[in-house]
Amino acid sequence: METLYKIAAIFFDIIFVLLVSYFTFVFGLRLYWKFKSKRMRGQELPILEGEFLRLKRGKGVIYFHAPNCRPCKFIDPVIKKLSKELKKVAFIKVNIAEKPELARKFGILATPSIIITKDGHIEEVLMGPVTEGTLREKLK
């Protein structure tokens, strides 16, 4: 019976260490994303050619998504709706599965990611899913 208690204690210790490691990793990654997005604000866009020329003047949105990303599937209709409603805002969708080099140039770590631009400079970076209200507020 004593060996059974020792095995159970070891098992629970391993589970505890794994859970703490997981939460530490996720929390650290979130902190890094927040720090990185703050650092990106005010920087000039790394690419201002092709379809990105539309972002040189006025407000713009660059939406990075992936075809197998579940949160992206929830944000896609919001992006489509806002792109139809807000005619003064230029919307660009980038599929990172097709264009991974663009994601690298912009420093995108996760999908969905939304970069809001103004006059060719990064105004804000939103990583992860956002609501329509939040996005609408940021684009005013």
UniProtKB/TrEMBL annotation:
Q: Transmembrane segments in this chain: where?
A: 6-33
MF terms from GO for this chain are: protein-disulfide reductase activity
**What PROSITE patterns does the record point to?**
THIOREDOXIN_2
GO cellular component annotations, sorted alphabetically?
cytoplasm
Would I find Nucleotide-binding among this entry's keywords? no
Q: Show where the Thioredoxin domain sits.
A: 34-140
Indicate the secretion signal residues.
none
The protein in question is named Thioredoxin domain-containing protein
This chain's source organism reads: Desulfurobacterium thermolithotrophum (strain DSM 11699 / BSA)
Classification of source organism: Bacteria, Pseudomonadati, Aquificota, Aquificia, Desulfurobacteriales
